[in-house]
Amino acid sequence: MIKTIDWKENRVVMIDQRKLPWEEIYVVCSEYPQVIEAIRTMVIRGAPAIGIAAAMGAALGAQTLAPDNPEEFRKGFQGICREIGAARPTAVNLTWALERMSTTMEGRLSGGMKGVQKALIREAARMLAEDVAINKRMGQAGQEVIRDGDTVLTHCNAGALATGGYGTALGVIRAAKAAGKKVRVFADETRPFLQGTRLTAWELVRDHIPVTLITDNMAGYFMKKGMIDRVIVGADRIAANGDAANKIGTYSVAVLARAHRIPFYVAAPCSTIDPRIKSGEAIPIEERDPREVTHWRDLRIAPEGISVLNPAFDVTPHGYITGIITETGVLQPPFTRSIREALRGAGMRERGEGRSKREAKNVAR
Ligand code: MRU
Q1: How far apart are the CA of 248 and the centre of ligand 1, in A?
Q2: What distance in Å separates the CA atoms of residue 252 and residue 242, rounded to the nearest whole number?
Q3: Which atom of ligand 1 sits closest to the CA of residue 268?
Q4: Ligand 1 proximity of 132 Cβ (cutoff 6 Å)
Q5: Cβ of 103 below 6 Å from ligand 1
Q6: Is 8 exposed, middle or buried (0-12, 13-18, 19+ CB in 10 A)?
Q7: Tens-digit pLDDT profile for residues 271-324
Q8: Residue 358 pLDDT more than 90?
Q9: pTM: predicted TM-score of the whole model, two decimal places
Q10: Alpha carbon distance 306, 297 (integer Å)
Q11: What distances in angstroms separate CA 8 from CA 27, 44, 48, 84, 201, one per listed residue?
C-alpha cells in the first residue's frame, strides 16, 4: 500500500504529491513549520491526510516546548495548533485532528512534560492507523452501492494519497473489486491542480483497476451516452444538513448526474462532518494562487494582465446527494437526521461535542 505519510525517528515523512507521477520522492519534516508549508503547498493534500499531517506537526511542535510548567506548555501548544490550523481553511479534518491533540494534551498535562510529548506522538500515530481502518470499513459499507460491471466517475483524488491509506471514494472502489465485482473508473482530470490526472490515475493504474482519464468538461458527454453508472467523490467538509464541500467542479458533476438520473455518492469519514456548521453556505472556501490557473508548471499559458479566480472547492447542496458513505454505513436523506445518528454512533466526543468547558476553551480553533 502507498505510504502517504508516516512518523519515523521523530520526523514526519510524506510522499511529495506535487511531483507525482513523474517522481516518487519523500519530504522529511523535522520541525512543525515545515509541516505547515507542506500542507500549504500541497506536498500533502486531501482532507484526512492533512488532518493526520496536522496531528503529526503538532506532535513535532510539542517536542520544542521546553518549559516544565503546565500553563506555559498549554499556551505554547495552543499557539502551535493555531498556526497549523490556519494552513488550509476548508477541510475540517485539520481542526478535528488538532482538537483531538489538544484533548490529549489536556489529559496528560499534570503528568510531566515528557509524558505529554510522548502521548502526543502516540495519538498522532493512532490517528493514522485509525484512518486506514475507517477507510476499510467505509469501503465495506460503500461497495454495496456499486453493481457488478458498473463504471464509476470520480473527481479529484480521494484515494490512498488523500488519506492515511486505502482512500475514501477510491476505497469504496477497491472494496468493490475485492468483493469480486468488475468495476471501471472514469477519472476527471481535475483542473487546475490535476489531482485526477496525476494522482487518481497513478493509484488506479498501480492497482490494476481499469481507469479512463477524461477532461472535466467531458463528464456530461459520457453521461449522456450512458457510459457512467455511478458518481463517487470525497469531501472536505460536510455540514449538518448534508451539504458537502469538495474539490472545485464537484458541484457541476452533481448537477450533471441529477440531469442524467445517475446516483451521486459522497464518501467521507465522520471526521469530515462538521455538525457545528448548519449548511454549506457557512463552509469557508479556500482561494488559491492564480498561478495554478495561468501556468502549467513554469510555463505561462494565459496572457499577462488577465484577471483570475481560483476557488479550490465548491459545495454540493444535499439535494443532489443520493447517499453519504461513512464508516458507520451509507447515510440516506434526510441527512440532518442520518448524520446526527451516525455521529452519535461514531462517538460525538471525538467531534468536539459534549466537551468540558475547559476543553472547549482550549481547542485549536
Ligand atoms: O485541494 P485538495 O487536493 O486537498 O482537495 C482534495 C479533495 O477535494 C478531496 O476530494 C477531499 O479532500 C477528499 S479526500 C479523501
Answers
A1: 10
A2: 17
A3: 15
A4: no
A5: no
A6: exposed
A7: 999 999 999 999 999 999 999 999 999 999 999 999 999 999 999 999 999 999
A8: no
A9: 0.94
A10: 18
A11: 12, 16, 19, 20, 28
- Indicate whether residue 312 lines ligand 1 (CB < 6 A): yes
Could you give the CA distance from residue 236 to residue 283 in angstroms, rounded to a whole number? 10
Gap from CA of 348 to ligand 1 centroid (Å): 24
Cβ of 190 below 6 Å from ligand 1 = no
Q: Can you give the pLDDT at residue 112?
A: 80
Calculate how far, in angstroms, residue 195's C-alpha sits from the geometric centre of ligand 1. Answer: 9
CB 327 within 8 A of CB 138: yes
Q: Which of 40, 50, 170, 247 to mutate to test the pocket of ligand 1 (most atoms within 8 A of CB)?
A: 247
* Interval 20-57: pLDDT, tens: 999 999 999 999 999 999 999 999 999 999 999 999 99
Residues with Cβ within 8 Å of 34's Cβ and at least 6 positions away in sequence, in order, are: 12, 27
Torsions phi, psi for 141 (to 5 deg): -65, -40
Q: Which atom of ligand 1 is nearest to the CA of 91?
A: 12
Binned at pLDDT 50, 70 and 90, residue 360 comes out as very low
Instruction: Compute the distance between CA of residue 25 and CA of residue 19 in angstroms, rounded to an integer.
Output: 7
Distance 236 CA to ligand 1 centre (A): 6
d(Cα 65, Cα 112) in Å, to the nearest integer?
Answer: 12
The cell for 190 is 481535475
Whether 25 contacts 16, CB under 8 Å: yes
pLDDT band at residue 349, thresholds of 50, 70 and 90?
very low
pLDDT of 363 strictly over 90: no
Q: Is the CB of 188 under 6 A from ligand 1?
A: no
Pick the closest to residue 178 from 134, 154, 143 (CA basis).
143
Active-site residue, 216 included? no
